[in-house]
Design brief:
Length: 167
């Protein structure tokens, strides 16, 4: 009871500064403080995330064996850098690259050919890279949280970053 009274008192103090009518402020503030303060925090994070991902990248899953995460819109911005690591069937059976640490998911353009027997990526220049081979390419590193459509099982054990493969 003491905690409830303290929370109500805190709510009244915060809204009294903003409200011109003090009698209504006590009634509205208590309800608002208890119901909207946490929701506002969550809404701010959700709207930021939604705004961040809405204009960001989206993938669809292709393949039955090793899954390819194919960009729905291959317009990725960022500085392209060298991508060197072992091509693997990573977390959740998704194509990934392992540069030495945690596996980093690969996001592929729709022009990358995907083979399943054996699992292979064929780049624009015709280079075929099988799972287990060294991948030397160019890519843009992105945060996984900024990519929509990645299956939950592909997140398990993967790094927080992924690579948009630039052939």
């Amino acid at each position: 009871m003491v905690l409830t009274a303290s929370l109500a008192a805190c709510g009244n103090t915060a809204d009294t500064d903003d409200d011109a009518t003090t009698p209504n402020a006590g009634t509205e503030t208590t309800a608002a403080a208890e119901s909207t303060a946490p929701a506002d925090d969550d809404a701010d994070h959700d709207s930021t995330d939604a705004a961040g991902t809405a204009g960001a990248l989206s993938v669809s899953v292709q393949g039955q064996g090793v899954k390819a995460l194919v960009l729905d819109d291959s317009d990725s911005s960022g500085e392209a850098t060298a991508l060197d690591g072992k091509l693997i069937s990573g977390p959740g059976g998704c194509f990934a690259v392992q540069p030495g640490g945690q596996p980093e998911l690969l996001l592929l353009g729709d022009d990358t050919e995907i083979g399943q027997n054996p699992p292979t990526l064929t780049l624009d220049d015709g280079t075929a890279i099988k799972v287990g081979d060294q991948l030397n390419a160019t890519g843009v590193q992105v945060n996984v949280a900024d990519v929509e459509g990645i299956p939950q099982q592909c997140f398990q054990g993967a790094a927080d970053t992924a690579w948009v493969l630039q052939d």
